[in-house]
Amino acid sequence: MILSDYILEIKNLYKEYTSKNITVKAVTDISFNIKKGETVGIVGESGCGKTTLGRCIVRGIPATSGQVLYTAEDGVTYDFLNIDKKKLKELRKDIQMIFQDPYSSLDPRMTVLNIITEPLKANFPKMKKSEMELRAAEIAEKVGLNPSYLKRYPHAFSGGQRQRIGIARALIINPRIIVCDEPVSALDVSIQAQVINLLKDLQRELGLTYIFISHDLSVVEHISDKVGVMYLGKMVEFAETEALFSKPLHPYTEALLSSVPVADPTVKMNRIPLKGEIPNPANPPSGCYFHERCSYCVDKCTKVAPEYREIEKDRFVACHRAEELKLKGFTYDEPKAI
Amino acid sequence: MDRKESIVQVNNLHINIKMDEGILTAVRGVTFHIDRGETLGLVGESGCGKSLTCKAILAINDPKCSTSGEILFNSDDGVVDILRLPPKGSEIRNIRGKQISMIFQEPMVCFSPLYTIGNQINECTRLHITKDKKKSREISIEMMKKVGIANAEKRYDQYPHEFSGGMLQRALIAMALVCNPKLLIADEPTTALDVTIQAQILELIKELQKELKMSVLFVTHDLGTVARMCDRVAVMYLGKIVETGPVEEIYLSPKHPYTIGLIGSVHKIGSKRKERLYSIEGTVPLALNLPAGCGFYDRCQCRIDGVCNVKEPEPVEVGPNHVVSCHAVGQKTGEEGHDIE
Question: Is B183 an interface residue toward A (CB < 8 Å)?
Fold first, then answer.
């Protein structure tokens, strides 16, 4: 078997929901690869399928079709979506998740100690209780929680501390990949910075790989090595962070970037207002899903859906006019001397 | 009122809430003013008293909040102190919704699901402008068109669940603006929305402000939107305004350690990606039984022991219209701002 470069390869992932004969394609044909130790950011508007994608990857919900190829520590590659129960149990602890809302993702009737050690109980039922407590105290220290608070219940903690509990719970069984689903969007600005710094420190220390789902572009730009932009269940662009933010190739990416409010009153941006709203995924437009809101739309876009293709190395885009359009992004200037 | 052009002047506003554990001092001596046609941004983290301050201006706070101070409003019939008006009297009702109106945070919960959108926008017109049903319908539809709701005649008779988040927010703005208020209070109007829709709504508020010559009090914790929308900024921490000034001043040379921390903790796209974000350690304390001294003392990097934890700082003017409440700044005026790196 050839050793894979990638720790995770997502291939043609589909997720469809059917209800009353209406099929909603929540995730349509998504493929991308992640190297070990990398952070891949996924951005898009609400309802574009970011969270569904994340949950399909951890097999929290079953995907309709597609593959998630995971290369385990021993170098063997498994299709994570297609392995038997026994192997799944073994591998599941390698891929963990941090949830969006720190207020509803912790059981109010369990002590923090029980919350943090629950994954241990599920995966190592024979482990001694004293050892579990020791590991919980260690991990609490690592994420910046005072270990003496572990006997308390979640209500006694603030939003930022709760998110740290969520992170500790994901980390305690030494995962290799963490899917972070909007881990900071429910937090205040100054607390956001603390949690982002923590995630970065842990990544460096433990060699973690992140899939970072967020709608906040500035946070994604800060933390990610590569970024994927989703629109209506499809990946429209995937590239290295700096390339994507400085030279977007898809008109939707350009529009997203131009609507980010920049915390600097001297920056006057040329805004490209996006007209209308995200279409109903149960009844998507013909051709390119974005053509109704796109200012560069030509006849072809209304009829033929563009192919998601690799235009340069590590640069994927789904747009007919990707080569000819000159789109605007952010300018990266040299750091100014303060 | 000392400033003739001010539309509203809030003086030394205190709001206390009685709780089982003691008295929560949610707002502790807030003073600010808004001029005609001006946009003031009120920035702060959750729990710092932003929303309570806004609601006090409309006198719609919960009765268990005890409020003191002065809110002078330049109404159609001269200057009135809103806090002295009976909260259910006819005078305040004449102001509420007509001269001052408010856009609330979450569009999804602000509308009653039982009535049509048109019916709910109409409530305001029928109270303040005309009793004629047909005419008020016309006015409401006109306003819905103005805020960019396509197909307004049809939308008028629809229920909130048939609207998307962005459209509901537009309907909420239409409801707030239908009587041409002098002052619009926008309490986190775009937090629940996506960036693209957010950009549309902010642009809309700006345009309408120019057209109707309103003053706007823009409340948010998002420093990006403030930079884009406001003329002046007031930064709130733990029930107090710690720094106010023109928007460029605040962003380019913030003086209060909290403002510096807030601005430093936002990553700017396009700037070189720093390894770490600047972060303020600790969390906002609960405003219960606060100790003497500066509220930011525990988290501050520039604190001076023996001064900051003993006495509350007084506001100091450090530039034109730029006022800071901090002992550390007071001691070394003339020096450049603190170093963030």
Answer: no
Task: Report if pTM > 0.95.
Answer: no
Q: Which of A264, A275, A332, A336 to mutate to test the interface with B (most CBs of B within 10 A)?
A: A264
Write the burial class of residue A231 (CB in 10 Å: 0-12 exposed, 13-18 middle, 19+ buried): buried
Verify whether the Cβ–Cβ distance B278 to A193 is below 8 Å.
yes
Residue indicated by tokens 């063997």: A76
- B264 to chain A, minimum CA–CA distance in Å? 9
H helix or E strand, kind and range, residue A18: strand A6-19
Q: How many whole angstroms separate alpha carbon A247 and alpha carbon B269?
A: 13
Nearest residue, CB atoms, B224 vs list A161, A256, A263? A263
Q: Note whether A33 and A8 are within 8 A (CB).
A: yes
Q: Which residue of B has its CA nearest to A252?
A: B196
Torsion of CA A275, B271, B299, A145, to 10 degrees: 80
Size of the A and B interface in Cβ pairs below 8 Å: 133
Which of B197, B202, B263 lies at the smallest CB-CB distance from A263?
Answer: B263
pLDDT given for residue B270 in this prediction: 66
B14 CB within 8 Å of a chain A CB: no
Residue of B204, B221, B266 for testing the chain A interface, max A β-carbons within 10 Å:
B266
Q: How many CB atoms lie within 10 A of CB A240?
A: 15
Q: What is the pLDDT of residue B3?
A: 52
Name the residue facing B45 among A46, A190, A200 (closest C-beta).
Answer: A190
Element (H, E) at B242: strand B240-246
Decide if B284 touches A, using CB distance below 8 A.
yes
pLDDT at B69 over 70: yes
Could B227 and A265 be called an inter-chain contact, meaning their C-beta atoms sit closer than 8 Å?
Answer: yes
Q: In the structure, what pLDDT confidence band is assigned to residue B163 with cuts at 50, 70 and 90?
A: confident
Across all residues in chain A, what is the average pLDDT? 85
Nearest CA among A261, A289, A269, A260 for reference residue A277 = A289
- Whether the pLDDT of residue B340 is over 50: the answer is no
pLDDT score for A270: 66
Q: Contact at 8 Å (CB) between B242 and B324?
A: yes
Q: Strands across the sheet with A65-71, in order?
A: A22-35, A6-19, A65-71, A77-79
> What is residue A269's predicted lDDT score, i.e. its pLDDT?
64
Rounded to an integer, the average pLDDT of A234-256 is: 90
ipTM of the assembly? 0.76
